[in-house]
Design goal:
The protein is α+β, with helices and mostly antiparallel strands and 247 residues long. The chain contains 8 helices and 10 strands.
């Protein structure tokens, strides 16, 4: 018996007893393999993540799926983290963003899918604000890709594991290889200004990731423009990081 938990743009998730099952709406087997590889990589580094169980193909739904151990997670959002939580998250991510890790699936994803997806969203910002964010994103291809990334490190994918009260990171559907400190820049650029400024001060590097933070804030704004959502907070973030990059 499957209990619907949530549905996102690329996936739909169910609870099946003590199993969390995620169906990929558009994914191929290589997407599942990439998610498996990187979720296990994070787990092997001692990071609290749901434990991978198996993956397969549902003949009934005609979709690939991936199973994890079900975790009772307290979901957090931009208004729910205290400063100790934020420090814990940055400390956890520093572990990943400083250790060399190269994987074929992760490298291919970075160049062929991840960067193009950033550009698709950023073009809405370039058109509306007369910026050149897409050119900045293109420049990422020339940088050293040498570490693992979660790829979508926002408060939507970070929570508190109710079993041990520790930070838990989940949903590795966008995981792959990236440039160093990308995940930290992504977390900062996707947060509201109240927390992003504090996170920036906690970052082990600052000036070297400013451009990446700007890119992420632009991508988040671009996605909201495309969906015709309220852009007030994301626009504030984008303007702030644009001005910060000029200093």
């Amino acid at each position: 018996m499957e209990q619907l938990l949530l549905e996102r743009r690329q996936s739909i998730c169910y609870k099946r007893g003590d199993i969390f099952r995620k169906y990929l709406k558009y994914g191929k087997e290589e997407n599942i393999l990439r998610e498996k590889i990187f979720s296990e990589h994070f787990k092997n580094l001692g990071i609290n993540t749901p434990t991978f169980q198996k993956y397969g193909y549902s003949q009934e739904r005609h979709l690939f799926y991936i199973d994890y151990e079900y975790k009772n997670i307290k979901n957090l959002d931009n208004n729910d983290f205290d400063k100790n939580n934020l420090k814990d998250v940055v400390d956890i991510i520093k572990t990943v963003t400083t250790l060399n890790y190269i994987n074929y699936y992760g490298l291919s994803y970075w160049y062929k899918e991840y960067i193009p997806s950033l550009q698709t969203a950023a073009k809405y910002v370039d058109m509306n604000y007369g910026t050149h964010i897409c050119e900045n994103i293109q420049g990422l291809k020339a940088k050293d890709v040498s570490v693992a990334m979660h790829g979508d490190l926002t408060f939507e994918n970070i929570g508190i594991d109710r079993e041990n009260q520790k930070i838990i990171i989940f949903d590795f559907g966008n995981a792959g290889c990236s440039i160093p400190y990308w995940d930290i820049a992504y977390l900062i650029g996707s947060s509201n200004l109240k927390y992003s400024k504090f996170l920036y001060e906690l970052s082990p590097v600052k000036t070297t990731i400013l451009n990446c933070i700007l890119i992420v804030s632009a991508v988040r704004l671009g996605r909201s423009i495309r969906k015709k959502e309220d852009i007030t907070e994301k626009e504030k973030s984008f303007i702030y990081w644009s001005e910060k990059n000029l200093l």
